[in-house]
């Protein structure tokens, strides 16, 4: 039996390693990506099977990855990125494994595992007992410090029926939210896509990156999906998070809870964000935001 790590999207695997190392079976990894990523993972895991995805997308190697795991089945730990979930699904289908999402802990218990995972987008947790093969999908969180496992990297090839023809780089999604010192987030308090310029001007005056709540990106499509913050979006840790017209639901606040200072602009003094913010300006964003921008520009 092997505990398998599936690494496909990036090297943010510290959360996956924490889960996998709590299990008794020896650890091995399947990496779908660059040789550089495979070498990085070999610093943490003693045996790495590497699929090069430079010419073949993850969907083209899914059954081959599943075959590697099925040859020596065991608990599988995978990240929440698109390719990781795709490969995790293929492995589960090939091995008849159960799939548990949003896993935060797993410990051996009797003949199986006791697994804790998030419910309701992180508002609640549930503990379940699992016997038999299982795929645990979890937040990889951060890139671990370089490891010293000096693992072997074994290249593997897939008889792929899918090949990459061309790739369009993503539309510019602004700067790097993860490392931004200041972030302005906008929510459904904004009434029209045309009004985005109001918060864009505020962000520019503040030297901040622009982000949003999920409905603004996924429902309205006013900003790229890479811009939304929360349990299923980006998590940030700026010194200042200025939330404009955002109610402060738990799923959003999980993404901003590491901000040093949270300031809210909201017309409703009873909105949940008021209790979670360090400061709140209770007022109509259509009045408050232009005034803030003007004040910042005058000051500079
Ligand atoms: C499984 C799951 C995962 C989810 N993941 C995420 C996630 O990762 N990120 C995320 O953001 N959401 C997520 N959600 C959605 C989340 O539950 C909320 O629905 C969402 O965050 C609400 O977005 P909002 O605050 O922009 O909108 P609303 O909740 O509609 O809030 C709008 C706010 O604007 C205020 N407002 C209105 N007009 C004005 C005005 N003129 N001036 C000032 N204020 C005004 C209102 O008082 C209100 O507080 C998830 C939900 C589920 C079920």
Keywords:
28% helix; Rossmann fold; seven-stranded parallel beta sheet; binds flavin-adenine dinucleotide; five-stranded parallel beta sheet; 300 residues
Q: Give, in order, the helices and strands.
A: EHEHEHEHEEEEEEEHEHEHEHEH
DSSP strand tally: 15
CATH fold-level assignment of the largest domain: Rossmann fold
Question: Strands across the major sheet, in which order?
Answer: 5-9-4-1-2-3-10
Describe this structure in words.
The chain is of the alpha/beta class. It contains nine helices and 15 strands. The protein has helices at 14-21, 35-42, 58-70, 82-95, 196-206, 214-219, 250-253, 272-276, 285-299; strands at 3-7, 27-33, 47-52, 76-78, 98-100, 103-109, 112-119, 124-130, 134-137, 152-156, 182-186, 209-212, 240-244, 261-266, 279-282. Strands 5-9-4-1-2-3-10 form a seven-stranded parallel sheet, with helices on both faces. A five-stranded parallel sheet has the order 12-11-13-14-15. The model has no long low-confidence stretch (mean pLDDT 93).
Structure described in brief:
Helices cover 28% and strands 26% of the residues. The protein is built from nine helices and 15 strands. The longest helix has 15 residues, at 285-299.
What's the arrangement of secondary structure elements?
Layout: E1 3-7, H1 14-21, E2 27-33, H2 35-42, E3 47-52, H3 58-70, E4 76-78, H4 82-95, E5 98-100, E6 103-109, E7 112-119, E8 124-130, E9 134-137, E10 152-156, E11 182-186, H5 196-206, E12 209-212, H6 214-219, E13 240-244, H7 250-253, E14 261-266, H8 272-276, E15 279-282, H9 285-299
The protein binds flavin-adenine dinucleotide.
Flavin-adenine dinucleotide binds at residues 121, 187-189, 213-215, 228-233, 245-247, 249, 251-252, 255, 265-268, 271, 284-286.
């Amino acid at each position: 039996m092997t505990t398998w790590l599936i690494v496909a999207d990036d090297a943010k695997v510290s959360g996956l390693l924490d889960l996998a190392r709590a299990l008794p079976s020896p650890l091995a990894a399947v990496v779908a990506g660059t040789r550089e990523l495979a070498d990085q993972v070999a610093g943490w895991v003693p045996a790495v099977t590497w699929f090069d995805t430079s010419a073949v997308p993850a969907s083209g190697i899914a059954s081959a990855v599943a075959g590697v795991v099925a040859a020596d089945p065991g608990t599988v730990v995978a990240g929440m990125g698109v390719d990781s979930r795709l490969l995790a699904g293929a492995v589960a289908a090939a091995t008849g494994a159960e799939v548990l999402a949003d896993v935060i802990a797993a410990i051996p218990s009797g003949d199986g595992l006791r697994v804790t995972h998030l419910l309701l987008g992180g508002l609640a947790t549930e503990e379940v007992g699992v016997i038999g093969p299982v795929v645990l999908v979890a937040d990889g969180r951060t890139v671990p410090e370089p490891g010293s496992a000096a693992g072997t990297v074994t290249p593997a090839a897939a008889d792929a029926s899918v090949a990459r023809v061309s790739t369009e780089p993503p539309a510019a999604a602004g700067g790097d939210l993860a490392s931004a010192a200041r972030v302005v987030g906008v929510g459904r308090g904004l009434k029209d896509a045309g009004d985005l310029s109001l918060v864009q001007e505020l962000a520019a005056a503040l030297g901040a990156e622009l982000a949003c709540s999920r409905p603004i990106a996924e429902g309205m499509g006013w900003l790229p999906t890479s811009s939304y913050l929360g349990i299923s979006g980006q998590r940030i840790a700026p010194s200042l998070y200025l939330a404009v017209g955002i109610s402060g639901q738990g799923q959003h606040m999980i993404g901003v809870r590491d901000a040093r200072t949270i300031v809210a602009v909201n017309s409703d003094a009873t909105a949940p964000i008021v209790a979670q913010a360090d400061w709140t300006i209770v007022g109509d964003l259509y009045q408050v935001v232009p005034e803030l921008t003007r004040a910042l520009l005058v000051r500079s």
